[in-house]
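Hey, I'm writing a tutorial for new members on how sequence and structure tokens pair up, and I'd like a real worked example in the thread rather than a made-up one. If someone can provide the structure for the chain below, I'll link this post from the tutorial.
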Amino acid sequence: MAFDFIKDKNKKVHFIGIGGISMSGLAAILLKNNYKVSGSDMKDSHIVQGLKKAEAEIYIGHSEDNIKDVDLVVYTAAVKEDNCEYIYAKENNIALMDRAEFLGLIMRGHKYNVTISGTHGKTTSTSMLSHITLAADLDPTILVGGELDVIKGNFRTGESEYFITEACEYKASFLKFFPYIGVILNIDADHLDYYKDINHIQSTFEEFSTLIPKDGYLIGYADDERVQQVLCKAQCNTLSYGIDAGDIKAKNISFNEKGCATFDVYEEEERLFRVTLNVPGKHNILNALSSVCVSLILDVPREAIVKGLNEFANAHKRFEIKGVKNGVTVVDDYAHHPTEIKATLEAAKNYPHNKIFCAFQPHTYTRTLSLFEDFVKCFDNADELILMDIYAAREKDNGLVNSTMLGDRIRERGIKCINSYSFEEALDYVKGKLSPGDLLLTLGAGDIVKLGEMYLMD
């Protein structure tokens, strides 16, 4: 693999926030290609330890002392300009590059770049396509926003011209990529700490579509009106998918006892093949169809498509079964947007259970405030809701919203909901409530997974 931007492998790249799911993948790709890598993160993790074993210089905590003989500093959109390492690099004229631009430069070394975008479902769709391309022996390079068992982590370095990655719209970072095939799964209101409104979000996806060459392809969900508008404006080849509309459709859908779908895939009126998924929920039919569209463009054999989708059993934190204790099944999911929560609870509803106990940790004050009424209405399929404090992530408490306010409005709608202010308190509550056959579902992009793990270990 050629990295034209670093011709001398003796030069070193430093990653601020190297433990992040995307940053760690980029660092690992460099390490695999014998580049020198260092990085810092606020906390240790198994991902950080894996990079350390691969001979990256790792620092826990941020300090200007971490920048030693560094030629390039890569940072994420979440890194603020007051970060001490960022300041040191700037003051000492060390080249700075954000994560998206760095990823875009790596993509330039490949012909068939597949970028999967959308407000929801990117990790699952990318993971499904990863399974398919591996089943077809395409030897792709893969960057996924979660950990995937088939590649033993969140990245894979291939030797072919195929590159598969998620394309996150946060701060319009995906506009720095070089897609040959772009996928738009959906367009919804999110990241309103950056975007003005949903129209601003849609216009950014339209700009994303202009990055695709005329002989390339834009794939989109036909039943999403805003996605359809982007498809209509695209100057490249387009392909749509859906259940009720689209060039590629799912028909004759049935669900098994675990809520996993079997369906026929049609191109217009021609039946192509039949697929059985091993992940629950109607939303995963759509994720599968997006990966089918990419596969058809890449001329992947149909048997490899069927095999790849059948073998996919979810990335970590996507309806991940963490264990069973006293007849209670513990499931963890990354869902942190109202649309994602509804889809996950719908999947849980069709999964074997007596009662669904949902523990949710809101993610960021901005998202909770801007989508407040949507959060109030998205938990109807939970029998009981345990609502944790807001996980601040990159933000500071603005004093405008908190979990108690959200809990009060949810209770007004007649949903059984309690506010819990520590994992210990939440654990005591669910231990007194859970019965054999119940489902304990932990939802959120923070550290809510700890609750389920505490229950299983207690």
